[in-house]
Amino acid sequence: MRLAVREVLDLAERCFSAAGFPPGPARAAAKAVWWTELYRGSGVTTLHDRLSALPAWDPDALTRTDRSEFVWAVDGSTQPGLVSSAPAVDLACAAAARHGVGIVHTRTAPGDETVPTLGHAAYAAAERGLLSTVLATGGVGTPRTVIGRPDDPHPVLAERELDAPSAGHAALAAVARAGANDRQDNPLTQAVFTGGPETEYGTAGERLLGRLLHRSVAPSGSDSRVDPGFTLVCLDPDHSRHSGDLRRVVDRFLDGGELTRTFRPEEISDRVATALAEGVAVKESVWRDVFERSSAVLAPEFEGSYRGAGFNINE
């Protein structure tokens, strides 16, 4: 069967609302599900597979463990990435708008099955005009890197799955663990500056970003420590802190062949047009389960709540 585009978003939002999410977080999580459906074709399936876990998801369970001008450390170790990604975007974007760089390092629950939705964090930050990188480790599946760059009418996104946590993720995780008192100036300098010769780019800002991007797809060493979770890096390319053309650095990296999948605006525009015209294909059994949860049919634990609910439930 096929669902209208709007129905996918509304069903997802109602599922999160039925699980107790406040309106804002429910809408944000639903947008991540919809993005995953549009970009990966698996948003509704991801939501369906986690329906039984929804009652344990709680946006209020996230806690800030450390903060500096540039870096936030967030403990979401009891929650999946889908719960913590929207707050991470808000925090990283706010820091980037003020300081030019915003980094949020978030621990997530082991065995997280929502990792494919984390690309939406890179997308959402790029929609706000920022260069973004998501470095994810742990959960179900392999570590991955997703890079976003603003474009019209949709951001450019590119990703790569890795065999081990990336060197960039390990370096930024170490910076986050160091604590605010040990962070000096730009955290990217601490994480990726090597002091070696540089011939590819002419300015310090371009060199730092270039090194971050290359390390985001390079494997970390066996002695590196990266807890399950993700790190979101946002850069404001127009901020006075940065020298050089940071957009050019990202473009050259995207064209360099180190990423295995790229989503261009024209491709996404075609997908959007197709989805609007034809709807989204889902299995009827999946739709029934999601619809029941979104309607809170099965939420109240008393017999009367099941009567007259449709789908031959208790009738």
UniProtKB/TrEMBL annotation:
This is Uncharacterized protein. It comes from Halobellus salinus. SUPFAM superfamilies: L-sulfolactate dehydrogenase-like. It comes from the Archaea. The lineage of its organism: Archaea, Methanobacteriati, Methanobacteriota, Stenosarchaea group, Halobacteria. One of its GO terms (molecular function) is oxidoreductase activity. InterPro entries: Mal/L-sulf/L-lact_DH-like_NADP, Mal/L-sulfo/L-lacto_DH-like_sf.
